[in-house]
Structures are given as structure tokens and as C-alpha cells.
Amino acid sequence: MVRILVVYDSRTGNTEKLAEAVAKGARKVSGVEVVLKKAKDVTPTMYLVLTLMLSARHLISA
Asked: What residue ranges do the domains of the chain occupy?
């Protein structure tokens, strides 16, 4: 299963609408799990885990 984390920040609501549209589109793909979070709700640990996962994936595909 592919997991996608959509992180956004929005003052006026426009970026939030865009993030929701991205998440909605991604959810239409079979086997995809999407989590939508405001930037303030993403912990430093989450960023670290994402960075490590992306780095590992990059090294494996290189």
C-alpha cells in the first residue's frame, strides 16, 4: 500500500481547498491511503520519519 501525507498551511482557505483536492484525487487510486494534515499538526518526529523513508527509497532506486 502506498501512503501519501499531504501537508499544508492556509490563511485564507485557498491552499486548504487545493490540498483537499489533491487528497481527493489521490484517494481515487487503488491501494493508496491519504492523510491530510495542517503543517502545525505535523510533529518533528513525523518529518524525521518521512525524511528517512524518502532517503531510503532514493538509495534503493539509485
From this structure: 2-61
